[in-house]
Structure formats: structure tokens, C-alpha cells
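idk why but the lab printer keeps eating my pages so im just putting this in chat instead. protein + MRU:
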Amino acid sequence: MNVRVNGKSRHYRTVTFDADKNALMLIEQRLLPHQFKIVGTRNFHETAAAIKDMIVRGAGAIGATAAYGLAQGARAFHGNDLRKFAKHIDTVYQTLKAARPTAVDPVNAMNDVRRHMSRGETVEEQQALALASAEEFANEDVAHCRAIGEHGSKLVRNGMRVLTHCNAGWLAFVDIGSATAPIYAAHAAGKKFHVFCDETRPRCQGATLTAWELAQEGVSHQVISDNAAGHLMQRGEIDMVIVGSDRTLGRTGEVANKIGTYTKAVLAKRHGIPFYVAIPLSTIDWNLRKGRDIPIEERSETEILGAWGIDSSSKIRNPKSRYVRIANPTSGARNPGFDVTPAELITGIITPAGIFKPQDLWKHRGKLGA
Ligand code: MRU
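predcted complex ->
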């Protein structure tokens, strides 16, 4: 995506790899929309920490980060002993996998990288294959998002009001985004429509990241509170919902996504509003048999009990984000990061291979990379 920084527009990817420095370069998403900054991670421990601490977040972006992180860890190994190398790779894999549990993209991405690596006969060959395969994953992520845009833009008609939740945009992938791909493609085709961004408490990825992206792209939008969608739906002010997913079950069509997605799907069903989920193939989990088995990340209670932001005294060029306590000082909180939406509430899954009923993913698994 093109970003205007200090008056100049430049194309960026959310995640890139500097092979000379064996470092990942990441957009520091915790500072957006107030500051645009690229940070580097110098080893796989720092890369895992960047995923865990949400410097980089969003299913596709952490998938690519994990793939590059595995390559980074592989390339840091010294020696020729393939057995020691395999053990080291296992440590790197487990460290990156543990960083965030709900999204399946990191696991699918790293499994891909390992499959490619196994074709190498020496440590050096496997190291080279690891990086080539991580690059391939990142490029494929972009290609998949572009194809989602081509299929999904047909759903966006002139005059529509589209609701999205959290950030399944460019920042949640390597480029373009999944839920935003139809929006960007329709906008590029000259269609006129409006997007409502759920603010998406507790971390507010909708109010900060999606709203920032849409502003960069010049798409008409407004941020709404998480509780406003039902009211707008009841008044006929929302025509379609498009969200992303962190893990979609290929066997059942159940969709894990940011907490609050299920609520929006129930509301959409109640009001007869189409509810779409946009995903690249790396978001499909072909193994799990039921949504109840999806690991749901429980996050820190500080996210619920307070909020981050800048106040009017912050300098524009160097804004300092502050945490303010909102809740009663003696109260604790519960903070599940994701929920699971059942297939019957979902109108269609927009994939790079076309739009499918969630219940039909398994039937079409051949086309969907199972
Ligand atoms: O906790 P995050 O920000 O990593 O959560 C991911 C999300 O932004 C959403 O769940 C999104 O809709 C799916 S990621 C493409």
C-alpha cells in the first residue's frame, strides 16, 4: 500500500526481510495512526517477541513474519551437522508458534517453509530454501489478497454502507488485506460507497488501523463504537458486513475472528444483512473438527481496564502514546481475544479461488489448497 509520510507517498509492505542483516523489517503497528515507523528484529527471539507484543499483528502479517522468522533462525545457525540443525529449527518453530495461538497462518506458513527446506541436502541448501520459501509465502499472501479483491469487489455496489470489524486490512497482511481487498478494488474501480469501522475494543484496531488505512486510500468511512452496529442495522444503515479471520475451519466453515465478530454476525442474521468473511488460503485449518477446539487467546486484563492514545498536548512529530486507566481501580477483567462464528451465520467466504458457502469449503478443498 502507498503511505504518505512527511508529504511523500511510498509503497510499503507490512513485513520485509533484509537478507544482508538477517533482520525482519516491520511497521511498528502499536504507534499507528500517530506515528509511522519501521523497526527491525535481529534474531528469532526478537521476531517472536514482535508477534507476541503486537508490533506486527493480523493473521497474514504474522504468518509472513513467522515464515521469515524461521528463515532468520535457520540462517543464524553455524555448522554442517544436519541433526543439530534440525533440532535448532524445531526450537525456532516452537518459539514462533507459541507467540500467538489463535491464528493458524503462522503454523501453515512455517509448515510450508519446513516442507521446502526438507528438499535441501546440506545445512547451507536448507538455509537458502528457507528464505526462498518465506519470500514465496509473502508474495503469495499478496497475490491471494489481490484475488480476494477481484472476487469480492463484485459484492460492493454504488451507495452501499459496509461494516467491517477490527483490521483485516493491508496491515494485517503483507499488502492489500483480506476484508479490505474488495473495498480497495471497488474504490479503484470508481464505485462510491461508505465504510463503518467498528472501533474494536480493547485494542481498537478498527479505530486506529483500519480507519488510518481507509484515510490513506481516500475511502469514505467513519468509526463507530462496537455497540452501534445493531442500531444502524435496525435503521437500515448497513447493507453488508465483511470481516477477516484468524482461523477458518475447512471441515465446518466456522470462523475464528476478533472478539465481537460473532455478535455482529448474529445481528446481521437478525436483520437479513449479508455477512462475508474474506480469507487467503493460509487461514484455513483443514485439521480441527470443531470450533470449540480452536485455541482462543486470553490477553492481559490491562487492555480491558484502560486504553492507549495520545492527548492534545502530544507533539505531532513525536507523539507519546499514554495508557489511561478507565475501569474501577479495584476491579479485574476477562479478555478473550477472539470468538468463533458458526457457519450458518455466514453468507459466504471470499477466497482467492472464488466465493463459497462456509459449509462447502470441504467439498471444494481441492481448489482451496487442502
Ligand atoms: O489481535 P490481532 O489484531 O492480531 O487480530 C487479528 C485481527 O485483526 C482480526 O481478527 C482480523 O479480522 C483477522 S486478521 C486478518
